[in-house]
Design brief:
Number of domains: 2
Structural class: alpha+beta
Number of helices: 7
Largest sheet: 12 strands, mixed
CATH superfamily of the largest domain: Fumarylacetoacetase-like, C-terminal domain
CATH architecture of the largest domain: Alpha-Beta Complex
CATH class of the largest domain: Alpha Beta
Shape: globular
Order of helices and strands: EEEHHEEEHHEEEEEEEHHEEEHEEE
Radius of gyration: 18 Å
């Protein structure tokens, strides 16, 4: 297990390029610098420090200028890593007969890992996530999302929203790609935290969903409730796979709204992890 320490810096992707935050100060990177350089580096923290040394001090980036902190990274996701997620998946799969699959994978050595998104399907802070037109039961899934370099090393993390069509997945587990992968099905941000270790187990992940100014759902959990060690998820993902530009890995959700709830157009989703900030998106 990696040592747990305080994050050392944050990386923002903005309309004008990459902005670093270190010790409360912000720096605009050289225009040629790319996030891909961090993810392909053997030592992303050192690469970031070197980029800051050549950067220009600037004001903090405005919220409306922020983009998803990614370039050519794929987003993958782990499923059924929380007990709450296992229970929800089994409940939604009763009619489709797939409930036992989720029970088994929760206790199996091999985790559930699936492809989630590419850059063009992913929105950033303030962006609009989408609902599938052929789905009637949709929820956001707030997740700690690991940043992993091309060498398989976890070097940071961000907030991820794994949008999910629960009725499609519940109908048949083979429909998982359709329930999970579509335009606007993922959100990342507001920044990438580069850290020498993993978030403490008592780190809170919280979500609030508002509709017309009224809070429709609030829930929270902690990183410590994830059943599987986070480095093991990364190790499984990199088995017989290569990621030349690194990748992001969503680590599963421990917060599931009640079965009577489904997202509607115009809903606002706010996901908070204190060390990262708050990722805010609206449903298109």
């Amino acid at each position: 297990m990696l040592p747990r320490m305080t994050p050392i810096l944050r990386v923002y992707s903005t309309a004008s390029g990459i902005v670093f935050e270190q010790d409360g100060r912000h720096f605009q990177s050289d225009p040629q610098f790319r996030l891909d350089a961090l993810f392909s580096s053997a030592d992303p923290a050192a690469a970031a420090v070197a980029a800051i040394a050549a950067a220009t001090p600037v004001a903090a980036p405005s919220n409306h200028s922020l983009r998803a902190p990614m370039e050519n990274q794929e987003i993958w996701a782990a499923g059924v890593t929380y007990l709450r997620s296992k229970t929800a998946r089994m409940e939604e799969s009763k009619t489709g007969g797939g409930g036992s699959f989720y029970d088994h994978v929760y206790t199996a050595d091999r985790p559930e890992l699936f492809f989630k998104s590419t850059r063009h399907r992913t929105v950033g802070p303030g962006g609009r996530v989408r609902l599938r037109q052929d789905s009637k039961w949709n929820v956001p899934e707030p997740e700690l999302t690991l940043a992993i370099n091309a060498h398989g090393k976890i070097f940071g993390y961000t907030i991820g929203n794994d949008m999910s069509s629960r009725d499609i997945e519940g109908e048949n587990p083979l429909y998982l790609p359709q329930a999970k992968v579509y335009n606007g099905s993922a959100a990342l941000g507001p920044c990438l935290v580069i850290a020498p270790g993993l978030p403490p187990v008592d780190t809170t992940i919280a979500i609030e969903i508002s509709r017309s100014g009224a809070v429709m759902f609030f829930g929270d959990t902690t990183v410590g409730r994830i059943k599987r060690p986070l480095p093991s998820l990364a190790e499984w993902l990199f088995r017989d796979q290569t990621f030349p530009h690194g990748c992001y890995l969503m680590t599963g959700t421990g917060i599931v709204p009640p079965d009577t709830f489904t997202l509607q157009s115009g809903d606002e989703i706010r996901i908070t992890i204190k060390s990262v900030g708050t990722l805010i998106n609206t449903v298109a």
